[in-house]
Specification:
The chain crosses the membrane at residues 40-62, 74-96. The chain is mainly alpha-helical and 109 residues long. It has helices spanning 2-7, 9-18, 24-29, 40-51, 53-66, 72-95, 99-108. α4 (40-51) packs parallel to α7 (99-108).
């Protein structure tokens, strides 16, 4: 089981790094016009907020998994639910052209 999880790590890293590249032309051209954050700045901000949880969640998850405070199965349900909620908020923010909601959704992912 651990070997299978380790084999999927490069796929996860590639997906996390390149999943927003298809939205770059849309974010640079059409979305978020008239706001304080436009174009490349909107794309860069969303990309930075999208990768920020990848720095923090492994440490939080490892500390909770090693402690006896929480059952590890709770985290196995909690983290994917957080990803689904974050993706929903991000999609809603891009659709509504509301930069704050899109950034918050990217931060939850």
């Amino acid at each position: 089981m651990r070997l299978a999880a380790l084999a999927l790590l490069p796929f996860g890293g590639h997906f996390a790094k390149n999943c927003l590249s298809s939205l770059q032309p849309y974010l640079e051209d059409a979305a978020f016009k008239g706001t304080a954050v436009e174009g490349n700045m909107a794309y860069g901000l969303i990309l930075a907020m999208h990768s920020l949880p990848n720095l923090v969640l492994p440490m939080i998850g490892a500390s909770f998994m090693s402690s006896a405070v929480l059952d590890p199965t709770i985290l196995l349900v909690l983290f994917p639910c957080l990803v689904v909620v974050g993706q929903g908020l991000f999609v809603a923010g891009v659709y509504l052209e509301w930069i704050a909601l899109a950034v918050f959704g990217a931060l939850c992912v």
